[in-house]
Amino acid sequence: MRSTLTRILVGATIAATAVGTAVGTAGAAGATTKTHTALSIVAARSTITAGHTDTVSGTLRAVGKSSTAKKTVELKRYNVKLKKWVLEKANLTGKNGWVRFTVKPSVTSRFELVFPGTKVLAGSHSGVVTIHVRPAKTATSLSIAANPSTIQAGSTTKISGTLTAGTTALPKRLVYLYRWNATTKHWDKVSVNVTGPKGGVSFTRKPPAGSVTFELVFFGSPKLAAAHSAPVTVTVNS
């Protein structure tokens, strides 16, 4: 009796296994194999100044002749605090699978592009690009004046100016005096001086007869932007 029951149970188990295998095989045979894709990435500039924008772009390609136009591509940025990739924005690819994003990171950031895939195209990830963000330089301004602005030949005039950042004077900075060369059509460096405690600087010159134009130049520093004064003209009567 037990032997007969055992044979019945074993037979049922084998039959059930056979049916399951047949169904699984049929399902596998009916499944659609997705087309492989690849996604590139590039940043227009690897380094930008804080407050400026950059462009991250890429091209989605598929094996064979599958179209990659009008496909959704996601831009993700790595969040250092959360320690994971965060979705920034999404866009549709163009006719040839190309996609572009405008970004404005405030600090150095890493970006990647992600194609989630479709019913016929497999998803893909691009590589990673890093956009380095350098701090913005503080804007400066440089005034200029000639006193007197009209002199006799052989006399001197004082070219002076003040270097500031907003309302803050900038002492101990190099300021250059340039003179316009009407023959070469270039500015010639004439002299250099250091700004005083209140950002002031001055040069005493004895220009030749005629009309002479000067300007002051501050070439900036790692934290301060460069500045040019307006031109000032001294008339020298013979």
Task: Give an overview of the whole structure.
With 238 residues, the protein is mainly β. The protein has two domains: 37-134, SOR catalytic domain (Immunoglobulin-like); 141-237, Sandwich (Immunoglobulin-like). Helix content is 12%, strand content 49%. It contains one helix and 20 strands. It has one helix spanning 2-30, and strands spanning 37-39, 42-43, 47-49, 54-62, 72-79, 84-92, 98-103, 109-115, 124-134, 141-142, 145-147, 150-152, 157-165, 168-169, 174-181, 186-194, 200-205, 210-218, 227-228, 232-237. Strands 12, 15, 16, 18, 19 and 20 form a six-stranded mixed beta sheet that branches. A five-stranded mixed beta sheet has the order 3-9-8-5-6, with no helix packed on it. The radius of gyration is 36 Å and the shape is elongated. The protein starts with a helix and ends with a strand. The relative contact order is 0.14. The model is unreliable at 1-30 (pLDDT under 50).
